[in-house]
Amino acid sequence: MFNRRDFLKAAGASAGIVTLAGCAGSSSGKASGHVVVVGGGYGGATAAKYLRMWSNGSVEVTLIERNSEFISCPISNLVIAGEKTLADITVSYEGLKKWGVRVIHDEVTGIDAEKRKIRLAKHGELGYDRAVLSPGVDFMWDAVPGLKSADAQAKILHAWKAGPQTVALRKQLEDMKDGGVYALCVPKAPYRCPPGPYERASMIAHYFKTKKPKSKVLVLDANEDVTSKKGLFVKAWQDLYKGILEYRPNSELRDVDVASRTAILEFDKVKADVLNVVPPHRAGTLVVQSGVKLANNRWAEVDWTSMESVSAKGIHILGDSTLSAPLMPKSGFMANQHGKTAAAAILNLLAGDAPSTDVMMTNTCYSFVDGQNAIHVASVHKYDTEKKTMIVVPGASGVSSARNEAEAAYAKGWAKNIWADMLT
Amino acid sequence: MNRFHACLALALPALLAATPAAAQDPNAARNMVANCANCHGTNGKAAPGFAMATIAGDSKESLVQRMKEFRAGSRPATVMHQIAKGYTDEQIDLIAGYLAAQQK
Fold it and tell me: A187: cis peptide before it, omega within 30°?
């Protein structure tokens, strides 16, 4: 069990680094208290760093993360395509410790919102003034009964959380004979990373075109059409992957026969050599079990000025677990922005001030369509005090005019900068 | 940063909460610059050796001019012409002032 004194000792060791960075125009500086952040991905890691940075170290921050290192979902399709390695998308948590964040690698087993306590599997109980939950998504395996067992999930991969599954899918593609079929099952929106499935299909088609030219990519999409950057993806598929990549809309997955790697659709069965199933998802189990209000039993409803649950005081929820505002994607970029909004609001609340309603968020999602070219979708969102949600600022959104090499360089630069923004 | 507004926020949180539209958030510049950070680095300081520009420590005038040119479509861009349209003159002024005060 950690107490306040232990925390201060740990934080004090690195206090020299936590001085005055970005203090111009910062808040009153009287915020104090203990914030526990659960989940060190794009949302949680950002919240942890910005709470320390913007409070000039006056707020204690503990980050609970089950994995020993951060592995990025964005750019992971390049690992699957053989253009990058897992090491290229892995970042240490040491940088957050330099900000004075106490990082504990453990699992949360329960949250008591009434007593403001979080129970950990190995490290006892932690009290908090504010909790930030950023667990990402978990899969609704009931929607794909054949994949309920761990054994089945080890054979038919999702690779929709970066890490061992990313490497395993790469291995399946390398082991596949030339002339084989790779099929990707895309769930109905909303899901994590709207353009992600189409980027993955494009990049695997690129791999096949250059290394296994007799092979095919088949996209079985539960949606009625490509859900993101449609024109740009469809043009890339026509220009670059004719005869390699086939797109089938309205192809919702009902079940899987694991032994024969067969996707069972409503009216059809599709056998693949490598079957990649992204099941429908919902808010991370931690959020679901915390008892906060969910929409459709799937996504957490939040107050967009603070990211606080609409039902559970003191619990802020970030990223993919939230019920997205209109036209707001479930993206790492957006989760990072949620983390900053939560950090600003929590510092106000801990200082006795109301959260600001002047909330602005931006989003840019890059997707690669081959080894050299990328495309983007971007939008700027602001809080609407009457609608009480984030809306896209009229005119402030759009996509690339065409796929281009400059944006492939920007996509790589974006990844380096956002990882640094979260973790160093 | 407007000192009067900052003091008002400290003294009258209840009033601020009751009339949010009327009061300027004293942290507005800091919070909006955090929107830039995803691509341009924390407080505008980008990772060296990659395509994104460091915008920390640039002059306020230059930053304001570039943002307005992006917004008007007169400056070549891949994405900034879309993002710049999300911000008002007043917001661009705040962002540029905050970035200009950062170390390069």
Answer: no
- The angle subtended at Cα B64 by Cα B59 and Cα B70, nearest 5°, is 125
The tens digit of pLDDT for each residue in A243-272 reads 999 999 999 999 999 999 999 999 999 999
Q: Do B20 and A397 touch (CB under 8 A)?
A: no
Would an 8 Å CB–CB cutoff place B67 in contact with chain A? no
ipTM score assigned to the predicted complex: 0.90
- Rounded Cα distance, A368 and A301, in Å: 32
A67/B contact by beta carbon, under 8 A: no
The span from the first CA to the last CA of chain A, in angstroms, equals 27
- pLDDT in the model for residue B104: 87
CATH fold of A141-279? FAD/NAD(P)-binding domain (3.50.50)
Q: Average pLDDT over chain A, rounded to whole?
A: 94
Tokens of A357: 């309603």
B95 touches A at CB < 8 Å: no
Contacts of B21 (CB under 8 A, 6+ apart): A357, A385
User: By C-alpha distance, which of A407, A323, A316 is closest to A365?
Assistant: A407
- B20, B35, B47 member nearest A357 (Cβ): B20
CATH architecture of the domain formed by A4-138+282-356: 3-Layer(bba) Sandwich (3.50)
Q: Does B8 have pLDDT greater than 90?
A: no
Of A382, A384, A298, A393, which is closest to residue A341 (Cα–Cα)? A382
Up-side HSE of residue A290: CA atoms within 13 Å toward CB? 36
Q: Supply the pTM of this predicted model.
A: 0.91
Burial of A217 (0-12, 13-18, 19+ CB in 10 A): buried
Residue B97: pLDDT over 90: yes
C-alpha A212/C-alpha A177 separation (Å) is: 8
CATH 3.90.1150.10 fits B27-100, yes or no: no
Interface of B with A in 37-56 (CB under 8 A): 37-43, 46-47, 50-52
Distances (CA, A) of A202 to A239, A246, B13: 11, 10, 52
| Sign of torsion over alpha carbons B32, B35, B36, B41 | positive
Cβ within 8 Å of residue A228, ≥6 positions away: A194, A195, A198, A329, A365, A367, A377
Which position has the higher pLDDT, B39 or B6? B39
Task: Give the whole-angstrom CA distance, residue A309 versus residue A311.
Answer: 5
| A1 DSSP 8-state letter | -
